[in-house]
Write a structure and sequence with these properties.
2 domains; globular; alpha+beta; six-stranded mixed β-barrel; five-stranded mixed β-sheet
Length: 284
């Protein structure tokens, strides 16, 4: 049994060498392989390799996720600078994953979905917490008689070849501030050309209020006032482009704060606490 299991894992690994995703007419093909990972914010992520005639709009519609969320996970990309062969990190909504077969299931209309095991994972955690399926289902589907190991690929379900939005309902709307953030991103990319990009890591602070409002701004001690900075929340994987309107006042701000954000800016980043860890890029 051990020998057959090892051979099965080797064959499975070889089959995942294919790098392309879809073609000029399809986002996914029956010959593609979709491998899923889960980040610290518990987002389920896949990597999509762009093929000819694929646009960000088509990709977002297919996977059932907004353009804003895709761009947030790919801060070096815009809607107009995508090239064939570029890789995009796509947040896969739970509704995209078909976990079980049924009487109406047609295998030729779906593509198997695999999860890559990471260090610290358990069979219980993957089955019950991540994919909400019986442990026995996960174990029997993947021949888990000898447990799991980091890097192992587990079959956890299927994704529709016709697209998530068609198979599982309508696409959710973008964040109401996504358009403004996108415009600030274009300004950041244009103004940063030829300038040295500086990086910071540390605490962001915002004053919690009942209503976050719609005003996006930041206080920062080094970026030029009037410039736009890039702020990333690693926990939510959200990226914000926001204008600097002033400096941090140390008398009313916690020590070691790197950036102060408006409530709307913190909300866009998915901040839960008044002080949270961020990664910042700015130019001078």
């Amino acid at each position: 049994m051990r020998t057959s299991l090892i051979l099965w894992i080797i064959c499975l690994s070889i089959s995942f060498a294919k790098a392309d995703t879809g073609d000029s007419s399809h986002i996914l093909l029956p010959t593609d392989t979709v491998i899923l990972t889960i980040n610290d914010a518990q987002q389920k992520l896949i990597t999509h390799t762009i093929a000819g005639k694929q646009t960000l709009y088509k990709i977002s519609r297919f996977y059932g996720v907004s353009i804003a969320k895709i761009l947030a996970l790919n801060p070096d990309k815009t809607e107009t600078n995508l090239s064939i062969g570029d890789k995009l990190t796509i947040p896969l909504p739970n509704r995209a994953i078909r976990r079980f077969r049924s009487a109406t299931f047609h295998a030729d209309k779906y593509l198997p979905l695999y999860y890559r095991v990471k260090r610290g994972d358990t069979v219980y955690g993957i089955a019950k917490r991540a994919f909400r399926m019986p442990i026995d289902t996960l174990a029997s589907r993947n021949n888990l008689e000898n447990g799991i190991s980091p890097g192992q690929l587990l079959h956890v379900g299927w994704i529709s070849l016709s697209g998530v939005s068609k198979a599982k309902g309508n696409l959710k709307p973008s964040h109401p501030l996504a358009g403004k953030v996108y415009r600030e991103k274009q300004f950041f990319l244009a103004q940063a050309k030829g300038k040295k990009i500086r990086k910071q890591r540390g605490a962001a602070y915002w004053k919690k209020t009942k209503s976050k409002g719609t005003q996006l701004y930041a206080l920062h001690n080094y970026a030029p006032i009037g410039s736009v900075i890039e702020v990333t929340n690693p926990m939510s994987q959200m990226v914000l482009y926001v204008k600097v309107i002033g400096r941090i006042n140390p008398r009313v701000t916690p020590a070691n704060t790197k950036v102060v954000l408006s409530p709307a800016a913190a909300g866009y980043l998915g901040a839960l606490n008044a002080k949270f860890y961020t990664e910042i890029r700015y130019y001078r």
